[in-house]
Structure formats: structure tokens, C-alpha cells
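Researcher: Here's a chain I'd like modeled. Treat it as a single chain, no partners, no ligands.
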Amino acid sequence: MAKRVKKASKKASKKAAKKSIKKTAKKAVKKAAPKKASKPAKPTGKKFLIIYHAPMDAMAQTMNASPEEMEAGMAMWKAWAKRVGKKLTDLGAPLVNGKRILPNGASGPSMRDVTGYSLLQAEDWDDVMDLLSGHPHISGWSPDATIEIHETMLIPGM
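Model: Modeled as a single isolated chain. C-alpha cells:
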């Protein structure tokens, strides 16, 4: 009889150990499973389109820069983007080969030296001006480089 009790006790012990292992494994899997992403907070403030202007010869010089010079320029842009943070909703991209289309359907090359764009979310003009302070585009790489800012308008129903 003592053997049976011992055997039953061992069996119960093994069963409890297996249950414990399964429970621990389930917890580990659940913990490791990716969390459901919560909706990102809707940005507040106004949207601003930032347009970068520079003479095309300055852009050509940039395209012919050494890898070290390009890396240094990109480091400035990365530092600015990091400082601005989530208010930079789209870093944008350089722009080339602009075209213009006239009302009569004729087209030709753009007459403006637009070299890139970015989108910012800011509370007001003071905020956007603060965000653009020390911007790499107007850091001196070209004395003729400028930044143009346009506040976007909300269109009802769109």
C-alpha cells in the first residue's frame, strides 16, 4: 500500500511540474508576442510645407561632393531632424527636373530653383521659425540657399 501511495504521489508531483512548465511557457510566449499597436496620437497644430531653394550649380556641387563631405552634410540633417522630433512629419527629399505646365497645355522646365521639401507640424509661426532655426539648408553651404514656408489650409470635406 505504501508503494501505491508513493507512486500516486510521484505521479501527482510530475503532473504538477508539467502544468507549471506549461503555464510558465504560455506566459513567456504571451510576453514575447508583439503587443497590439495603439493608435499614434494625432499631431496637434498646423501643417507647414517647407520648400528649399538653391541655385542648380550649388546642387551640382553637392552631387559631386566627396563621401566624407556628403556624410558631414547628412549628419547635420540628421541632427536637425532629431532636434525637431515628431514635429517633422516628413523629412522630404531633394527635388530635381522640375517642370511647369501652362493653362494652354504647353510645358517646359521649371523656372524656379526648388531643390527639396519637408513637412512640419507646428503650433504657430513662432514655433515653426524656432524649428527652422539652425537648419542645415541655410547653414552656409550656399550663400544663395533659402527656405520658403507655406502654412497649409484645411479644406472642408477633404
